[in-house]
Amino acid sequence: MANETVKAPAIKPEERVSDPASVEVLKKAEKECIETCFSRYDTQKNQCKFGTSGVCCKICHMGPCRITPKSPRGICGADADTIVARNYLREVVAGTAAHSDHGRHLVLLLKKVAEGREKDYTIKDVPALLRYSQCYGIKTDGRSNEEIALELSELFIMEFSSQEEPLKTLRLAPEKQQAVWKNTKVEPLGIDRMVVESMHRTHMGVDHDYRNILKQAFRTSLADGWGGARVASMVSDILFGTPSPVRSTANLGVLQVDTVNIIVHGHEPSLSEMLAAAVSDPEIIAYAKKAGAKGVTLAGLCCTANEILMRRGIPVAGNFLQQELAIITGAVEMMIVDVQCVMPSLPQVAKHYHTEIVSATDIARTIGATYFDFDEDNAYESAKSLIRKAIDNYGKRDPAKVAIPQYKNPLVAGFSVEAIRYMLGGTFRGSFRPLNDAIISGRIRGVAGIVGCNNVKSTSDVYTNVLAAELIKNNILVLQTGCSAQCSGKAGCLTPETALQFAGAGLREVCETVGIPPMLHMGSCVDNVRILEAATEIVKEGGLGDDMSKLPAVGVAPEWMSEKAVAIGCYFVASGVDVVLGVPFHISGSANVTRYLEEEAREMFGGAFVTIEDPIEAAKWVMKTIEEARDNLGINKKAERKLLDMKDRRGI
Questions:
Q1: Same domain, residue pair 218 and 311
Q2: Looking at 240, 271, 296, which one is the last position of a domain?
Q3: What H or E segment, with its residue span, contains residue 20?
Q4: Long-range contacts of range 174-178, CB-CB < 8 Å, 24 or more positions apart?
Q5: In the structure, what pLDDT confidence band is assigned to residue 651 with cuts at 50, 70 and 90?
Q6: What is the pLDDT averaged over residues 119-148?
Q7: For the residues of 427-492, what is the DSSP string, one character each?
Q8: Poorest-confidence range of 198-212, 351-365, 626-640?
């Protein structure tokens, strides 16, 4: 029965979302009186000013306390600076815990594989295993893959539990970057210790100096970006394969009327990888045909989508704000969810249709969802049983409620650092030298990383797509991850042809020569570390400074919304990269905290935050910042033309 409490919206669907598939389904939702995050936003528009400015404290039960001009201190005496900084650090802690726990799960899976306790998961990418082991000084000659993997997994486990030594993974950063962290005393110890210590610091009556608290925020974030998240990407490559360019499609139009439609949503790739393998099993196809369907369509939402897109070419049904809309098409038999960015509203939306919401992890249960105990020790058969359950649900579909928008666009994804290196130089001459040379010569002015979520506070996808279009037009190469990459995919901009149509002359020339799009899809939100890895390669290649703060490079989070994004932004800034926020932090209640993050951070690390809520203004700021970096490097000077004789040529 439809939800009768939903009122006709004052805002048109076209003002909420920009892609036509979402507009179409939102109109269907309104017609059927289905509540979505967009209609719920209308009921929450008068958001608490104390919360949005960060000056509400509920850490102890003498409160909650709210800071105002008439009440400048809480009951314990904490002022706005302390309260805002503590709240900020707790956001960083939550974001770090989310990505790092994802990494821990994969490390423990690698250990089980190395010990021979897994029959369905294997070491799929041996070169990746050897490459990463050598990064840590692990001996590889004369040893089995399993022996190497076991030592590497045990080293990674120590990255979580280490109590006295800085993370070994920090050594993957440029040497000068490491020196900056050491000199500013933000080198993180074990990931788990950083999370626990930060929570201790923010307990009532512990750390009250906003500078000390914010310094700990950067330290904790580094345990994520140069710790847990980096480990997660490396282990994913070893177990599931290092991504390489692959063609696929994106948007709700990937769902099909005559197939069983299964959507995976969340962030952890272990189950989704097994589902991707199982859907093409002849036994599964036969079972689907027996149920009256032509087959099974597996598609993804959010970052689980990016994981299986990058490695298997599985289509993308949509990004974060499309998770409810996918159900409202009426064509989804099952949505399988794990962790992070999964709305608890999904079972409430699904009850209007035949869709079954299945939670496949014990740490993320939702009222109204079916819990499925995914057995990693029998992963393939476990995945097949789940698919059969979805096929059994196909007969319950109501054809009268099915309306799949016929909008989808082709895309190319899978641009890991290894793939970029190969495309720039081939098997034997793989190198970032051509990219550095293109930047030095000015054909490419610089690089922008556009990352992050969707947010109902702005028209979905608009900021990302306007910004990216403006940047490539001005010869700035764009690297993308997460839901931001999916914005561009849905818009049809993640193809090499985009360079021919929209890129500036210099960037177009490079893209045509190499055969890449001007916007490179580098993976899920945990794969933001791949952007840092690419930046490290540029620094090591030479000619563009000796640390990341010198590079003509900027990070942008246009429509971010989660605590993970706060941690990501922090570890980019701590790595020397300026970060533009399209949505402000909850820090405006403290001028000192704001100044620290927007000014003092640059003095410490070479990077800082800036909030710009208009995409065109953001593009201007990015281009200005990149040109300033080029000026500082001295690569904007026109080289004097000189005719070379044979003696000059021999010298060169």
A1: no
A2: 240
A3: helix 20-31
A4: 174/536, 174/539, 174/540, 174/546, 174/547, 174/548, 175/546, 176/546, 176/547, 177/547, 177/548, 177/575, 177/576
A5: low
A6: 97
A7: TTS--SHHHHHHHHHTSS-EEEEE-----TTS-BTHHHHHHHHHHHHTTEEEEE-HHHHHHHHHTT
A8: 626-640
226 closest CA partner among 552, 558, 567, 578: 567
31 burial (CB, 10 Å; 0-12 / 13-18 / 19+) is exposed
User: Domain range for residue 311?
Assistant: 252-401
- Please say which residue of 367, 401, 435 terminates a domain: 401
Cis peptide before 64 (omega within 30 of 0): yes
* pLDDT score at 573: 98
Q: Mark out the alpha helices in 340-430 (DSSP H runs).
A: 346-350, 379-393, 417-425
| pLDDT tens sequence across 597-636 | 999 999 999 999 999 999 999 999 999 999 999 999 999 9
The answer on pLDDT for 294 being more than 50 is yes
The CATH number of the domain where 471 resides is what?
3.40.50.2030
Residue 335 has what DSSP assignment?
E
461 within a domain of the structure (yes/no):
yes
3-class SS letters over 150-217: HHHHHHHHHHHHCCCCCCHHHHHCCHHHHHHHHHCCCCCCCHHHHHHHHHHHCCCCCCCCHHHHHHHH
Is residue 76, in this structure, part of any structural domain at all?
A: yes
The C-alpha atoms of residue 295 and residue 29 are separated, in whole angstroms, by: 27
Question: At which residue do the structure tokens 């050491």 appear?
Answer: 182
User: Per the structure block, which two tokens stand in for 4?
Assistant: 């009768």
Nearest residue to 300 (alpha-carbon basis) of 377, 259, 248, 356: 248
Q: What is the pTM of this model?
A: 0.94
Is 25 a domain residue? Answer: no
> Tens digit of pLDDT for each residue in 34-45?
999 999 999 988
In this structure, the answer to whether residues 345 and 224 fall within a common structural domain is no
For the ranges 120-134, 483-497, 628-642, which has the lowest average pLDDT?
A: 628-642
Query: Quick one: 422 and 387 in the same domain?
Result: no
**128 with 223, same domain?**
yes
> CA–CA separation, 147 vs 135, rounded Å?
16
CA pair distance 230, 194, nearest whole angstrom: 16
Evaluate if residue 352 carries a pLDDT over 80. Answer: yes
pLDDT at 317 exceeding the cut of 70: yes
Residue from 540, 460, 550, 470 nearest 502 by CA: 470
DSSP sequence for 580-607: EESS--S-TT-HHHHHIIIIIHHHHHS-
Q: Is the pLDDT of residue 5 over 70?
A: no
Q: Is 480 part of a structural domain of the chain?
A: yes
Q: How far apart are CA 150 and CA 135, in angstroms?
A: 15
Distance of CA 24 to the CA centre of its chain: 27
Check whether 8 has a pLDDT greater than 60: no
| CA separation for the pair 491, 489 (Å, rounded) | 5
